[in-house]
Amino acid sequence: xxxxxxxxxxxxxxxxxxxxxxxxxxxxxxxxxxxxxxxxxxxxxxxxxxxxxxxxxxxxxxxxxxxxxxxxxxxxxxxxxxxxxxxxxxxxxxxxxxxxxxxxxxxxxxxxxxxxxxxxxxxxxxxxxxxxxxxxxxxxxxxxxxxxxxxxxxxxxxxxx
Amino acid sequence: xxxxxxxxxxxxxxxxxxxxxxxxxxxxxxxxxxxxxxxxxxxxxxxxxxxxxxxxxxxxxxxxxxxxxxxxxxxxxxxxxxxxxxxxxxxxxxxxxxxxxxxxxxxxxxxxxxxxxxxxxxxxxxxxxxxxxxxxxxxxxxxxxxxxxxxxxxxxxxxxxxxxxxxxxxxxxxxxxxxxxxxxxxxxxxxxxxxxxxxxxxxxxxxxxxxxxxxxxxxxxxxxxxxxxxxxxxxxxxxxxxxxxxxxxxxxxxxxxxxxxxxxxxxxxxxxxxxxxxxxxxxxxxxxxxxxxxxxxxxxxxxxxxxxxxxxxxxxxxxxxxxxxxxxxxxxxxxxxxxxxxxxxxxxxxxxxxxxxxxxxxxxxxxxxxxxxxxxxxxxxxxxxxxxxxxxxxxxxxxxxxxxxxxxxxxxxxxxxxxxxxxxxxxxxxxxxxxxxxxxxxxxxxxxxxxxxxxxxxxxxxxxxxxxxxxxxxxxxxxxxxxxxxxxxxxxxxxxxxxxxxxxxxxxxxxxxxxxxxxxxxxxxxxxxxxxxxxxxxxxxxxxxxxxxxxxxxxxxxxxxxxxxxx
Lengths: 161, 567
Description:
The complex is a heterodimer of chains A (161) and B (567).
Chain A: E1 2-10, H1 13-25, E2 30-37, E3 43-51, H2 54-65, E4 70-77, E5 81-92, H3 98-108, E6 111-116, E7 119-126, H4 128-138, E8 143-155
Antiparallel strand pairs in A: 1-3, 1-4, 2-3, 5-7, 5-8, 6-7
Helix pairs in contact in A: 3-4
Chain B: E1 6-9, H1 10-20, E2 25-28, H2 35-40, E3 48-51, H3 55-69, E4 73-77, H4 81-84, H5 87-95, E5 100-106, H6 122-126, E6 132-135, H7 139-154, E7 161-166, H8 167-171, E8 173-176, H9 196-209, E9 213-217, H10 219-223, H11 227-237, E10 241-243, E11 258-260, H12 268-276, E12 279-283, H13 289-292, E13 303-308, E14 322-325, H14 328-338, H15 345-354, H16 368-378, E15 383-387, H17 391-399, E16 408-410, H18 420-430, E17 435-441, H19 442-448, H20 452-458, E18 463-468, H21 473-482, H22 497-504, E19 508-511, H23 517-526, E20 531-536
Parallel strand pairs in B: 2-3, 2-4, 4-5, 5-7, 6-7, 9-10, 9-12, 10-11, 12-13, 13-14, 15-16, 15-17, 17-18, 18-20, 19-20
Antiparallel strand pairs in B: 1-8
Helix pairs in contact in B: 1-7, 3-5, 3-18, 9-14, 11-14, 12-15, 16-17, 16-23
C-alpha cells in the first residue's frame, strides 16, 4: 500500500542527506522522492512515497522525525490525500502530426510549452499513474527525453493537533 | 567581561565554551588542522587534556567517561586520518546511546573540496553514526553551534555528535559573548493518542491480570537512573526482573527478584521465562536481536508493555501491546504507584524449577567462574568493571554479582573489540575513588593495548585483565558449533604480557592456576598505578548456553555439540 511521508527539513543539503541516508539505511521500498521549498523560508519539504505496510511506514516516519535537521514529519495513505507530479516530455513530432499531438495533449489536459522544428516539449501534472498513461500515449510519436519531478502530496484533512 | 564581548579566536572560543559547559577532561591527539585549538588549550588550565596513542581510544575513553558520569565526554582529533580514526568510537557510542562530543579539525575553508592534504569529508563519513554533526562555516556561529551540539548529544536519548572546525575558522576572530543562560530546548514533545495517565492505568491493569509477568530492563534504566523506581515496581508486584547486557547493574543481582540476562547467552530458565510470560514490561531496551533471538518466536504468549524515551523504538523489533513513551524514571515511578500490590510466588517457583546448575564446561583449573569470583572478592562493591567483546564479556556479564548501579560498562550494540582498555581510562578518571578493571580477551586487548602508554604518562591507574585462550574465542566457538570445527583465522598469538607490562614500566602477572588467584589479585589491587594480569585459560572453553543465530529463545545449545549444526 502506498504511503506518503511529508517532512519539513532545514533547508540545507546536510539535513536532506541525513534523511535520504536514513531511508537508504532502513531499506524501505521507495517509489518516489521529491524535494522543494517548505512552507516557511529556511525550510524544505521532502515528500517520499513508500510502497509498504502501515507499520513500516510509521516506523520510517519516526526514524526520520528524530533526525537532526528534520523539523516536522507526517504520513498518510496516498488514498487519503492528493498527490501530484510534474512531467516534461520532449517528443519528436513531424509537422503533419502536430494536430494529433495537440489532440493527445487536450485529452490529458497537457500543454505544449516549447516547439522547435520536428520536436516539442509538453508539460503535464497529475498522479503518478496519470503521468505514466500520458507517457504511454506519447510513445507513438517517439520520446526524445523526459524529466519527472516525483510526487508531492497533501492529505485531504488538516493534521489533528 | 565587556558588554560588546571580548575579541577571541575560534580556537579560544571553543575552549571557553567547553569550559562553560563544564568540561574538565578531554581526550585527544593533535595534528595540522587542529593546531590552533591546541595552541589555545593551555590557557584553560581547568581542562585536562589526555594524550592518547590512537584517536579511536580517545573516542572510547570519552564514551567511558560519559557512561560513568552521566554527562558528556569530549574527544578531539585533527582532520583526515585523525577524524577517520574516530569512526569506530562514534559508532560504538551511537549504538549504545552515549553522549560523546567529537571535535575535529578540518582543512581551511578555501582548501575544502580540493582533496587537500589530510582532508576528509568527515561529515559525510559520520552521518549515519552520529546523532548530529555539523561543519562550522564561520566563527560567528561557532559558540552557538557547539552549545547546540552538546545539547543535542545529551538531550532525550543521548548520542554522539561531531563538530568539524576548519583551521581558518579556529584562527578567525570575533567578539565572544558567554552563553546567555537560555538553554536549548530540544526534546520534542511526545504525543500519545490517549493521555499518558490512561496508558499507565492500562499497563497497571495488564500487570494485575497477568499470571506470568516479567520486567525486562535495559540501558535506558541506567541512562535515566530509574533504579529505585524499577525496584519499587518489582517489589510491589513481585515480578521477576531480567537485565539485558547493557541493563546489567540496573537492578542488584543479589535481589531475590533478579533473574539474570536474557538472549543469546542468557540462562535457560531466563529465556524460558520469557517464552512463557504473558506480560512483559520492557523498560529502556530496544529488543535487540541478541536479546530476542528470532523475533517470530519471541515471547509468543506475551503482551509487551514498552517504556522507552525514543518513540521510534516502539514496535521496531517486536509487536508492542502498549507503549509508554517518555523518561524511564518518570514513567516507571507512575507505573509503580498505579499497580496494585501483588505477588508472583507461583510463577517465580515455576521459573526456579527450570533453573539448572551451571554446567561446568571447563576442563582446566583456572575457570572463568573462579577468575571472576576472585576479582569480585578482591574488590567487593567498590569497583567498576569495563569489559571488551567476546567470551570473557559473556562470562563476566553472567558471573559477576553486580550490586551497585552502573558498575558494568561494555560495548553492547556495536560489539567493539578493543573497547575495554581505552573506555576504562575514561571510567577511571570519572571515578578516581573506585577500582576500575578493564577485562579483555587476548584478541581485543591487542587491538588497543598501546593505551598502556597513555595510562603511564597520564597516571591513570586502570587494572587490566586479559583472558588469554590463544583464540578469538567467541568466533572459534561459532566455528566449532556452526562451521564444522574449521578454526579459520581464529588462533591468535600473544606477546609475553608480563614482559609487555615490564616494557611499559608497570607490574604484570601471569596466572595459570586457581591457587595463584588470590595473592596475585591482592597485589594487583594494592598497586597504585596501572597493572596487567594475564589469565591463561582453557583454550577451547565455550560460553553456555547459546541460542544459535536465527533460532528462537526456546532452542538453546546447552553443552558441547556432538556434531556441527547448521547455521
